[in-house]
Amino acid sequence: MAASHPTPGSAMKAVAESESESEGEETTEQTAEAEETAESSTSAAGGKKKKKSKKAKVASALGLDADSSKPAARMSDKNIETLLNNNPALKGELASAPPGKSAKDVLKNMSLDELLTGMSLTGKNQKDMASFKFWQTQPVPRLDESQAERAKLPDGAIKEVTPDQVPQTPAPLPEGYEWVELDLTDDEELKEVHNLLNLHYVEDDNAAFRFSYSKSFLDWALKAPGWRKSWHVGVRAKGKSRVLVASIFGIPTRLRVRDKPVDVVEINYLCVHKKLRAKRLTPVLIKEITRRCNLEGIYQAIYTGGSILPTPVSTCRYFHRPLQWMKLYEVGFSPLPPKMTPSMMVKRNRVPEKTKTPGWREMEEKDIDNVSSLLSKYLKRFDLIQDFTREEVEHWFLNRIQDQADRVVWTYVVDDGSGSLSDMASFYDLESTILGEAGQKHPKIKAAYSYYYASTTALEEGEKGFKDRLKGLMEDCLVEAKNAGFDVFNALTLLDNPLILDDLKFGAGDGFLHYYLYNWRTGPIKGGVDKHNVPDVNARGGVGMVML
Ligand code: MYA
């Protein structure tokens, strides 16, 4: 899942959004401006021009003291009440507060730093190594292993596996179930996988949204160059129904992790039917896909997820740019920040009607070589990347689907007519089903996810002109996505996204995406956020790989 990856909705953080809001318009802007003027005139008198920090602006909006030298600031009852009333999404999230604590208790006990960074409100995901009964037997770094120590060891396999150690037959399944290889060239089987995932795959913590992968998406994601049927693993009930109750999929790919090429399997779409949860089927599925990969000489894997397992090599944060703010608000995805009205939010989230980058056009077949070379030069700047072949560039970026309703990927290039391309940018379509009552009015959120981009300006000395260029490329993607009917544009803090998220009015989500490497040791890789999980331009250069 890479996406857990999303946390399908990774609903937007109320407080974090009010943070960007303080640079917004109308009432909020006026307040912020008044505060800023007051502060800059004092600072100017001292000879040093200083803008009021974002933290200070949010603190003031919440009635808190942002001075980090003072004891951690807490919110008053009145502010908590207002915040919860204005933000159905936050209220929903707090419905899963730890036992014995009300939503208000949780908020009240959070410091300003915690509120700003949107870190776990519910204390979920906190488990020590000893309680990972399965994972502690696997060749992955331990959660309690010092990161500094890990970084000192040479990069490489954690465990050497020889072919004679690989079992020739699968481990037994519980009575009444059997292993199957799924045939995704058969439309009926593709439909079965689609149904399993649509009913049982990743949901957000409040069970408000669930990923809804289209059949064309799964066809694209799972039949990438070099795909093998033996890595498309399912579990069916024996007997008449033969219903598909679990899945795990792998596709082959080549990574570069720091300076080392690593042939891996990319694992995704691990799913167990809701009725079979907590029965330890997952370890059996993981061991089976591992066995099948080992049989093909593959001993390393990459995967992502929203929960913490031993041990992430990197963590990125989700950001969301509303394109249809009112719909997102109505379904509880986007909060209404303090001091804002819905019409102010609609206005704030408008995007231009037309793209602006001269030479911007859709990628065509003739661009494959140029896109490959541009992407490969651009991605060299990152520690964790997919080493794309030409065939993979063609598969992942060139749209061949004519029916717009089934389309999965949108790729654009900037062509100045010189024969080479200066830039490319792309996004893909991944919808989420809206669960519960809200789903009656709007059954789905149509989300565009930022995919890869590349720009020659990134390679200029001192990245001259890159930030503005990237802003332009991403804004043009917002325009294309809006015109194609998307409700929201999602992005992680990977690649160079920390440069532009704030300027383009992306709001922080409550979802994080953890990256994992199986049987490969390397030091921690930057995920684009600082220690408070706020996008940090200095934390770029790490994750350069986008997982679906
Ligand atoms: S991430 C997307 C995962 N899918 C979902 O979230 C869909 C909705 N949820 C479900 O279907 C189930 O809740 C799942 C767990 C299947 C997630 N990755 O069967 P159990 C461990 C790895 O009783 P259930 C994606 O697709 C858990 O810590 N392990 O649990 C990438 C515990 O182990 P331990 C996980 O809740 C997948 C054990 O499973 C995950 O019924 C990458 C409990 O098993 C998780 N997301 O089902 C897989 N969630 O005792 C790893 C729980 O140690 C690939 N667990 O705590 C590794 C590389 C393999 C290839 C190697 C080749 C060389």
What does this structure look like?
The chain is of the alpha+beta class. 30% of the residues lie in helices and 20% in strands. The chain contains 17 helices and 14 strands. Strands 1, 2, 3, 4, 5, 6, 7, 8, 9, 10, 11, 12, 13 and 14 form a 14-stranded mixed sheet that branches. Helix 1 (14-21) crosses helix 3 (54-62). It is globular. The structure holds tetradecanoyl-COA. Tetradecanoyl-COA is lined by residues 1, 4, 132-135, 200-202, 265, 267-272, 277-283, 286, 289-290, 293, 298-301, 303, 305, 307, 309, 518-519. Tetradecanoyl-COA binds at residues 1, 4, 132-135, 200-202, 265, 267-272, 277-283, 286, 289-290, 293, 298-301, 303, 305, 307, 309, 518-519.
Considering the chains and any ligands shown, give keywords for the structure:
548 residues; alpha+beta; 14-stranded mixed sheet; 17 helices; binds tetradecanoyl-COA
Binned strand content: 15-25%
User: Span between N and C termini?
Assistant: 7 Å
Structural class: alpha+beta
Low-confidence stretches: 1-7, 14-73, 83-99, 111-124
The number of E-state strands comes to 14
Instruction: Give the helix tally.
Output: 17
Bound molecules: tetradecanoyl-COA
User: If you compute it from the alpha carbons, what radius of gyration comes out, rounded to the nearest whole angstrom?
Assistant: 24 Å
Backbone shape: globular
The proportion of residues forming helix, as a percent range, comes to 25-40%
Main beta sheet, described?
Answer: 14 strands, mixed
**Mean pLDDT across residues:** 84
